[in-house]
Every structure is written in structure tokens, then in C-alpha cells.
């Protein structure tokens, strides 16, 4: 805005300077010349600052884009690692449950059998919990996709 104001003032000052010269008011013409130089210098300084700001703004936009890409990539990696971990926990729990079932079938000690039954029940509860989390997770993933589609 300031640059536009200066660019509006300079032609008017040049015209006033021409009138001053034609009217033999050289002192006034000299003052107007000085004012024109001052405004021209100020305009050039402002244009330089504006140019620097545009460069910085462009860099910030690029950096923001890069940060967003990094965030998206890291989010995908975390989701992949979480899925791999959950799969591993499920597989290990299922194997342990099979082992417990086999041991229960051949167990002759009632007390040890009760411990293994309790352990087996804990594994069942863990599997149910994981399935519920998975169901909730798929719902929130669907919500997230819908939100992304709206953006």
C-alpha cells in the first residue's frame, strides 16, 4: 500500500517540479527534487523488503508442505507398526491358548488346571478386547477418511 502511495505521489511531485521550474521557482524545484529522491529511495527499499518477504513466504509454504508430507509418512509408518504389533500379539496369544488347551487336556493336577483355565480365560478376554479395539479403530479410520474427503 505504501509503495502504491509513493508511486501516486511521484508523478504529482514531478509535475509540480516542472511548474516550479517554468515559473522560475528554482528553490521550490530543488526541494521537490529532494522529496522525489527521498520517495524513490523509500520505494526501492520497500520493494526490496517486499521481495524478501515473498521469498520467505514461498520458503515457508514449501517447508509446510514438506512437514505435512513427513507427518503423513510417519503417521502411516506408526499405523503399520501398530497393525504389525497387534497381529503379533494376536498370533502369540492364539499359540499360547492352543498350548494351554493341550496342557489342560493332559493335566492331572486340579490346582494347576485351575491356573491354566484362568490363564486361558485371560487370553480370551484379551482377544475380545483386541477385537473391540479393532472394530472401534475401523470406525474411527472411516470417520477420518470422511473428514479427509471433506477437506
TrEMBL record:
It comes from the Eukaryota. PANTHER family: DISRUPTED IN SCHIZOPHRENIA 1 PROTEIN. Signal peptide: none annotated. InterPro entries: DISC1. It comes from Macaca mulatta. Residues 29-91 form a coiled coil. Keywords: Coiled coil. This is Disrupted in schizophrenia 1 protein isoform a.
